[in-house]
Write a structure and sequence with these properties.
With 224 residues, this protein is an alpha/beta fold. It has 7 helices and 6 strands. It is globular, with a radius of gyration of 17 Å. The structure holds S-adenosylmethionine.
Length: 224
């Protein structure tokens, strides 16, 4: 049985999640792929950026190194904002980054890419969803969602209500289990906005997501 353990309490005791979890891996891979597709200097906004670097535990290091997410692996321990700046620099592009945390009220500015990754969009989407619907008319938004639907019917209805609001809008969605043997939630990453209609980007995100999903689900599907 793959070894499951709760995050090391000596690391990131103030964080509500383990940095380098499967959601971070998926989100980081998507951000790198978006940058490669965009292919030029950019303006980036990250209103819930957290700290620039996170401690990486040994189980996380092994999880990331064993995963097919080669891009994310080179930025392990970096926040998304740091990853975006590192990956863009590697590609030869400049980033004008607007990063903040604990903003209230939230103010969005024109940018090429907005990362929307607060605590906890699944519970609090009614506060923010109209803002995102508006922002994504004009530019690309990557949204992270910890989708608690596996926990029961009421959570699933909550999720369906959110999805209903996005019907008819260009939306690409990647979804992987939170854990191979204890899948208490889905990690979801969305791309909404003009880029979601671009076939090359769509193919790249789809391939990376399915590869990660297969890697993760294989671990839970078979023992012996
Ligand atoms: C999931 S973490 C962000 C991780 C970061 N986006 C990354 O990928 O590296 C969520 C962040 O939202 C911030 N935050 C600030 N104000 C918030 C609010 N009003 N509601 C929810 N989260 C808030 C927290 O301080 C925290 O840094």
């Amino acid at each position: 049985m793959p070894e499951w353990q709760w995050k090391d309490p000596s690391h990131g005791a103030l964080l509500r999640y383990e940095p380098g979890n499967w959601g971070d891996i998926l989100k980081g891979e998507w951000l790198c792929l978006w940058l490669e597709w965009f292919g030029r200097d950019l303006v980036y906004q990250d209103p819930f950026c957290g700290q620039a670097h996170y401690p990486v535990t040994q189980p996380t290091r092994l999880r990331v190194q064993g995963s097919p997410a080669r891009r994310y692996a080179t930025h392990m321990g970096s926040s998304s904002a740091t990853l975006v700046q590192e990956h863009a620099a590697r590609l030869g592009y400049r980033v004008q980054a607007h990063c903040s945390d604990r903003e209230s009220p939230l103010s969005l500015r024109p940018c090429d890419l907005l990362l929307f990754d607060p605590y906890d969009f699944f519970e609090r989407w009614p506060e923010w969803n109209d803002l995102l619907l508006e922002a994504s008319r004009h530019h690309d938004v990557v949204v992270y969602l910890y989708n608690k639907s596996p926990r029961g019917a009421s959570q699933f209805r909550q999720y369906q209500a959110l999805r209903q609001r996005w019907q008819g809008r260009p939306l690409l969605l990647g979804r992987v289990a939170a854990d191979a043997v204890l899948p208490r939630a889905w990690h979801e990453v969305w791309l909404v906005g003009p880029g979601a209609s671009q076939p090359k980007l769509r193919t790249a995100l789809q391939q990376a997501t399915l590869e990660l999903h297969r890697h993760l689900s294989d671990q839970g599907a078979w023992e012996g």
